[in-house]
Design a protein that fits this description.
single chain; 310 residues; 2 domains; two-stranded antiparallel sheet; elongated
Length: 310
């Protein structure tokens, strides 16, 4: 049996879509702020002022507009709270996904011997989502400003809408089929995802580190030349400094360096868990093994690693 994201509850797809949209908004807002700051520095460093009418300087006016644009983007971002909504919806999506997998393959606390697993799943799901609502997550089933996911009731979720037919089908499979599906479609998929993110982060770190080093080296060269009065490079020096600072800020915001270490550690843990599941984990140990795997891939675990590896 194959179990993909498409087989997860509709509430997951809604939270995932909102998280992606809000992440794009937050990243684009930061990118616009940094680009406008560099543009403002560039315009104010140009020797040509474009004087109009004897006193009005066109280039300086464009520079002022660039700085005003930074303020406008900042105020707009504060009102939209894109970063906060991005993180909350990502937490909701990953929580729903993890709990759904645990239910479908008999992971703790929904192991084979538990009675009323469907009711327990609905209770755990609603309790977790209630905690997210306390810190600002907007439940589409309760918020009239959001369109509820297709197939979801307006009220609080019932067991029927939270447990998909594919989840029930997988749960009813024998242990060997559940184990094979989980290892292939969840554990290995997540392991590959962390590997790809590590590669992307390494490439981005190399690119931005080289760019920052080059800009700083040019600024150093101009500063030395200016020290000995070889050139008057004050405006260009400011532009290089602003560009290097923008690149550094962007690299820090994207957290490439700490994510390399965090994702590498998670990938190693998943590799060890993969080996254990294939060779040592018995059916009696399966529920706890799934629970531990889901803990490893949780965003909270990754954030903890990032904070301690920064």
């Amino acid at each position: 049996m194959v179990f993909r994201n498409a087989d997860l509850p509709v509430l997951f797809h809604h939270a995932d879509a909102v998280a992606i949209r809000r992440q794009r908004e937050a990243v684009n807002a930061t990118r616009r702020q940094l680009l406008l700051l560099v543009l403002g520095a560039l315009l104010t460093s140009l020797p040509w002022r474009g004087t109009v009418g004897g006193s009005f300087q066109l280039i300086s006016a464009l520079g002022a507009l660039a700085y005003a644009g930074v303020l406008l983007v900042t105020f707009r971002s504060a009102g939209q709270r894109a970063k906060s909504h991005w993180q909350l919806n990502r937490s909701a999506a990953e929580f729903i996904k993890s709990l759904s997998w645990r239910y479908a393959v008999h992971g703790a606390p929904f192991d084979s011997g538990v009675g009323g697993a469907a009711e327990l799943f609905a209770t755990r799901m609603e309790a977790g989502l209630a905690e997210l609502r306390k810190v600002g997550w907007q439940d589409p089933r309760q918020d009239p400003r959001e369109n509820p996911p297709e197939g979801a009731d307006a009220g609080r979720g019932s067991t029927g809408e939270l447990i998909t037919p594919a989840m029930r089908m997988l749960r009813n499979k024998p242990f060997a089929a559940r184990k094979e599906t989980y290892v292939r479609d969840r554990l290995i998929e997540q392991r590959n995802w962390y590997h790809r993110r590590t590669v992307v982060s390494r490439r981005a770190t190399t690119l931005w580190s080289a760019t920052i080093a080059l800009l700083t080296l040019l600024a150093l060269l101009l500063a030395v030349l200016r020290t000995f009065s070889v050139t008057d490079s004050g405006a260009l020096l400011g532009l290089l400094s602003a560009s290097a600072a923008a690149c550094l800020a962007w690299s820090e915001i994207r957290r490439h360096q700490p994510l390399i270490s965090a994702h590498s550690l998670v990938e190693e843990d998943l590799a060890a868990m993969h080996t254990a599941m294939e060779t040592m984990v018995t059916e009696e140990q399966w529920a706890n093994a799934v629970y531990e795997t889901e803990r490893i891939v949780s965003p909270q675990h990754t954030d903890w690693l990032v904070r301690h590896r920064s």
